[in-house]
Amino acid sequence: MSVVTEELSYRGRELESISDAIDDVNVLKGKTWSKKSELDENKSKKSFRNYENACDRVKDFYRLQHRKQTVEFNLKARAAFRNRKRVSMSVWQAIELLNTLVDESDPDTSMSQIEHLLQTAEAIRRDGKPEWMQVTGLLHDLGKLLLLFGSEGQWDVVGDTFVVGCQFSEKCIYPETFRSNPDSRHPVYSTKFGIYEPNCGLDNVMLCWGHDEYLYQVLKDQCTLPPEGLAMIRYHSFYPWHREGAYEHLCNENDKKLLAAVQAFNPYDLYSKSDERVNPEKLRPYYEGLIAKFFPPILEW
Ligand SMILES: O[C@H]1[C@H](O)[C@@H](O)[C@H](O)[C@@H](O)[C@H]1O
Ligand SMILES: [Fe+2]
Ligand SMILES: [Fe+2]
C-alpha cells in the first residue's frame, strides 16, 4: 500500500497512510457497518426502489436526511469541503477504502460497494458502451468516501437528492417528512423558486449535500471524463428530476441534454444490483487500464 502524501485528519486523529485508514474502516465495520454476504435474489424491475415496504433503516434514514438537509447546512458543508485538507490516493485505493460500508438508504442491495461499482461498470461494458461511461460506472459512488472525510452521518452522504433553497418537491420519496425541515417554513426557501431565478440551470442550484455533489467537485478538474460522465456522477441520485420530472422550472437547455445522459446511466446503477457476483481481482487489470486513460495516478480527494 503506498503512503499517502498528506495526512488525513479523521475522526479527531491523524492517519498517516491509507492502510491506517483501511484498518480503521475494518474496526469500524464491526461496530457501525454491517455487511451481508448474500446476494439479493434476482428481482423484477418493479421490485426495485419499493420505499413503501422498505425496512425501518431506510425510513429512519430519510426522516433524518429530510429534516437536516437545510440551506444553512449546505453552505456549511460546501465551505468545509473547500477548506478541508485533501487526501491523496489512487482511484483503486479509493475503491478499496470504500468497500466496507453498507448504505443505510438503499432498500435494494446488501452487497459491498466494490461489487456494486464493478457490477454497474460491467453492465455498461456488456452493452458495448464507451470506455468513459464504463469508468463512470466504476466510480460513480466513490463520493461515499465522505463518510470517512468528516460527514456528520449517512444523512449527508447517501440517499436520493433534491434541491434546497426552494420548495421541497412532492416527487421526492416520503415527501411528508420535509415538514420537520425548518426550511419548509422559511418565507423564501419554501416558495416555488425560492432563492433561484426561473430556468437558472442546475449548475446554479444547490442540491442537497452528499456523495454525488462531493464526487463531482473532486473530479471536475482532475479527469478527462466528458460532461455527460460528470453529469451522471453529479445527478445520479437526483431521482425526483431524472425519473419523476420535477424541477423543470429550474432547468435550462443544457440540463435537458444532460438529463438524457443521466437517464441512460440509471438502469445500470439500479438494475445491476441483482446481477451475478463479480471477482474484483480478476477485473482489476482491465479497469486499472481504463482508469489510467481518464485519471492521473494519484488524485486529491
Ligand atoms: O448510491 C445511492 C444509494 O444507493 C441510495 O439508496 C439511493 O437513493 C441513491 O440515489 C444512490 O445514488
Ligand atoms: Fe449513488
Ligand atoms: Fe450506485
Automatic annotation (TrEMBL):
- Assigned EC number: 1.13.99.1
Q: Which family does it belong to?
A: Belongs to the myo-inositol oxygenase family.
Q: Which residues are involved in binding substrate?
A: R49, D103, E104, S105, K144, G159, D160, H236, S237
One GO molecular function term of this record is: inositol oxygenase activity
List localization entries: Cytoplasm
A GO cellular component entry from the record: cytoplasm
Highest taxon listed in the record's lineage: Eukaryota
Q: Which UniProt keywords apply?
A: Cytoplasm, Iron, Metal-binding, Oxidoreductase
Identification of the protein by name: Inositol oxygenase
Query: What sort of enzyme, by top EC class, is this?
Result: oxidoreductase
GO-annotated biological processes: inositol catabolic process
Q: In which pathway does it act?
A: Polyol metabolism; myo-inositol degradation into D-glucuronate; D-glucuronate from myo-inositol: step 1/1
Cofactor: how bound: Binds 2 iron ions per subunit.
The record's section on Gene3D superfamilies has:
Hypothetical protein af1432
Catalyses: myo-inositol + O2 = D-glucuronate + H2O + H(+)
Q: Which InterPro entries did the record assign?
A: Inositol_oxygenase
**Residues given in the record as Fe cation binding sites:** H116, H140, D141, H211, H236, D269
Cofactor requirements of the protein: Fe cation
